[in-house]
Each structure stands twice: as structure tokens, then as C-alpha cells.
Amino acid sequence: MPAIEIRDLRKSFGKLEVLRGIDLSVETGEVVCVIGPSGSGKSTLLRCVNLLEEPSSGSVHVDGVEVTDPDCDIDAVRRRIGMVFQQFNLFGHLRVRENLTIAQRRVLRRSRAEAERIATENLHRVGLAEKAHAYPAQLSGGQQQRVAIARALAMDPRLMLFDEPTSALDPELVGEVLAVMRSLAAEGMTMLVVTHEMSFAREVASRVVFMDGGTVVESGPPEEVFGSPREARTREFLHRVL
Ligand code: ADP
Ligand code: MG
């Protein structure tokens, strides 16, 4: 059973059809990187997986549960999905440790002691244990994004969605966030990653998906998509970004 299975997914905003029949599955343990021009529907696709956007038609299954079924307990599914955005979305008025404990306590009903233990564990995982008492504004962008990843991990997600997690960062801070993502991938985390970091996609992805105009134009192992793209649109895009 795939971790994510998307079938003939369509999404319109008014008359604008943004996703035009997407088929995509992600196996457990796979790292799938989605690349493509701005406006091609990558964020919308990711947001349809945890129903931050409601698909117009088609189906999405997460671990065998159909999230597009109106009877689905979407909160239960969302609990299993970690999401990391371009903007880190940390709670600015809370210290790092509280950023990591609040959802554990409110959503997973963990005790304060357990939530704090798991927070510490996950701050270690992203190399920021010493920042537990800092406020987000006291951290660099790269550190804030690593906190956001640790916060998602503290919820024990079955899979992680990343939407351009390094796009808002100064260039010198990109590497530390990608390093954390690489180690997650090496640990076997299932990941669906929208990214402009072609070298990351090339080295870490099990599969690369090129989207354009709301469709999957081409997908395959990174060495194929980057090394010998079949479609003209893929070649043009890669020519522009590489
Ligand atoms: P990408 O992430 O590939 O840049 P998006 O999924 O963000 O693309 O957007 C795809 C298209 O959908 C764009 O034309 C965008 O303007 C439009 N769009 C995205 N979200 C909304 C929304 N909530 N309402 C109306 N249009 C939207
Ligand atoms: Mg986007």
C-alpha cells in the first residue's frame, strides 16, 4: 500500500483549473521531489494531500485511508502528516521548546514531561538542542526552519510534506536545512518535497516529478529526468534553472 496515492486529481479555483488530472503515488520510504515552474500547481497538489485545499474531483489516499471521502476523519490523517512551508510559521510569542510541545500536548494529549522529552530529542535531531529557550526571532532563518522541521517530527509523522522549505532563506543558510532533510531521507522517512534545489533532488530523490500547467509532464528516477529528459517542456525548464 502506497503512503500517498493520488488519482486523477483535479482542482479549480473558480474558472482556473490548477490541477488537471494528477496521478502520483509515493511508496513508504520514498523521497519524491516535485519540480516545475512557478504557478504550475505544486503547492496546490501538496495542499490537497492533507486537505488544506479541497480537491474538485479525483481521490487521495494516505496510508490507505481515502482523505477525499467525506466521512474521513481528516484530523486523524493530518496528525500523521508533517508539513513544512516556505515561511516557517513558528509561533513567534512562544519559545522554541513550547513551539515543539504545544501540539503534542493539545493534539496528542501527551503529558508535559513526555512532550518536553520528545521536544528535546527532536531539537537534537536538527542540531538545535541549545536553542530550546530562544524565541524564533532570535534565530536565523535556517535555524527557524530546522525548528519547524523538529516541530513536525515531534508529532511522529508517517510522512512529511515540504513546500519549498529553503526558498525564503539566504543562500548561505540553505545547506543546513537540506542537511537535515538528507538525514531524514537516510532514516527512511517518506517525503514529498516541492523544491527548486535541483542538486538536492538529483542526489536525494528516489523519483523526480516535473509538473507544468497543472499536469505531471514527466516523472522518473533523477538520473533519467535530469540526465535524459524525454519531454521538450522538461528540457526547457531544466535548461532555464540549471
Ligand atoms: P506553484 O506552487 O507551482 O507555484 P500554486 O499551486 O501555488 O503553484 O498555484 C497554481 C495556480 O493556482 C496559480 O495560478 C495560482 O495563482 C493559483 N492559486 C493558488 N491558490 C489559489 C487560491 N487559493 N485561489 C485562487 N487561485 C489560486
Ligand atoms: Mg508553490
From TrEMBL:
It is found in: Cell membrane. It holds the Pfam family ABC_tran. It is a peripheral membrane protein. The keyword DNA-binding does not apply. SUPFAM superfamilies: P-loop containing nucleoside triphosphate hydrolases. Residues 4-238 form the ABC transporter domain. It comes from the Bacteria. Coiled coil: none annotated. The keyword Oxidoreductase does not apply. Its main location: membrane. Keywords: Amino-acid transport, ATP-binding, Cell membrane, Membrane, Nucleotide-binding, Transport. GO terms for molecular function: ATP binding. PROSITE patterns: ABC_TRANSPORTER_1 (PS00211), ABC_TRANSPORTER_2 (PS50893). Belongs to the ABC transporter superfamily. This is Amino acid ABC transporter ATP-binding protein. It comes from Plantactinospora solaniradicis.
